[in-house]
Amino acid sequence: MWKMITFFARFYTPFRFVEFLRRTKGKIHFVPRLLAIYYCLRDTDTPKAVKLVLMGALGYVILPFDIVPDIFPAVGWLDDAAVIAAALKFAGAYIKPEHLEKVRHVIPFAKCDW
């Protein structure tokens, strides 16, 4: 499992993440969750093992060709949503209220009640 996480973590960079958000332009409903993961990843209090899992999750989402390629409308994002949900469950204790505040600052009407 760690081998797969580190494989996908290689595809994550802050620049690629921002470009991914720019390309999707709100086409996916879990952008607030992605931002929460991003802010948790940037937090110095987050343990390195958790950061690796979060980087792996973001790398998986950024990569256009994964288990179900994102070129298939709707269905292509289901596996990405599942990976994000698993990453949030894994790192839930490390996602702080200030991370969610930053998400609300970027997306004012974002629901952060997961």
From TrEMBL:
Keywords carried by this UniProt record: Membrane, Transmembrane, Transmembrane helix
Classification via InterPro entries: DUF1232 (IPR010652)
Localization of this protein: Endomembrane system
Start and end residues of each DUF1232 domain: 50-85
Membrane protein topology class: Multi-pass membrane protein
Primary location: membrane
Protein name as annotated: DUF1232 domain-containing protein
Species whose genome carries this gene: Megasphaera hominis
Lineage of origin: Bacteria, Bacillati, Bacillota, Negativicutes, Veillonellales
